[in-house]
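Page 37, continued from 36.
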């Protein structure tokens, strides 16, 4: 059994880890961001925002401060303002989603259950809608879309994975499996026995994205929402 307090504590630490990685990535790319004029504010101010994000996230991870969701949210919004767009797409979306819910939950015990329930539903919808968007595309059922993504990706995909993607049956089964997991994810609310199956499968999916495409923040941003889902299912079935 996971309590609401444990849910908040685990989630804020996981989302803080995602923020640490984000700050490190932005610092590493600072020269490119400045030269290409992607940053729409002064470089000094942008560095200050990133440094603040790194500091607050690190303090949260070390458990020195835990009620930091609102501060992290403000810093995330400042980064969006500085770049005038999300920098990592889905990871930014889920990080901000989690921080909005955690900000509410950390500052209102009355609203906390509703905020965590909302976060759990958003997590569920992120899988379901991704599957729903693919389900009518024949290329996802044949595996061609996944094969194209692996081989034409701008990410540094391991050679071994590219070779495996050339096996038509394997890539088709993998693609169909992904579709079924995404579209079927809401079943966890109806059949308790499916919960460990779906969660372990999506966890492996995120780990593979981490390893194959280097989507490290993607992994931690989504993982930060898992405690909310577990809490909701155990308390409101």
């Amino acid at each position: 059994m996971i309590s609401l307090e444990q849910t908040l504590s685990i989630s804020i630490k996981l989302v803080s880890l995602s923020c640490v990685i984000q700050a490190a990535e932005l610092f590493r790319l600072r020269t490119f961001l400045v030269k290409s004029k992607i940053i729409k504010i002064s470089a000094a101010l942008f560095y200050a925002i990133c440094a603040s994000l790194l500091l607050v996230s690190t303090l949260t991870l070390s458990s020195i401060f835990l009620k930091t969701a609102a501060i992290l949210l403000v810093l995330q919004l400042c980064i969006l303002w500085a770049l005038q767009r999300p920098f990592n797409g889905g990871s930014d979306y889920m990080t901000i989603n989690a921080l909005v819910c955690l900000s509410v939950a950390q500052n209102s015990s009355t609203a906390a259950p509703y905020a965590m329930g909302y976060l759990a539903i958003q997590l569920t919808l992120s899988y379901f809608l991704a599957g729903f968007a693919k389900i009518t595309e024949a290329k996802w059922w044949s595996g061609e879309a996944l094969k194209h993504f692996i081989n034409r990706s701008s990410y540094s995909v391991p050679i071994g994975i590219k070779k495996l993607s050339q096996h038509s049956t394997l890539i088709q089964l993998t693609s169909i499996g992904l579709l079924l997991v995404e579209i079927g994810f809401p079943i966890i609310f109806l059949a308790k026995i499916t919960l460990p199956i779906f969660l372990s499968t999506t966890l492996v999916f995120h780990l593979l994205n981490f390893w194959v495409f280097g989507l490290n923040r993607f992994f931690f941003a989504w993982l930060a929402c898992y405690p909310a889902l577990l809490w909701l299912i155990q308390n409101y079935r």
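The CA atoms of residues 6 and 227 lie 8 Å apart. Flag for discussion at group meeting. The chain has 13 helices and no strands.
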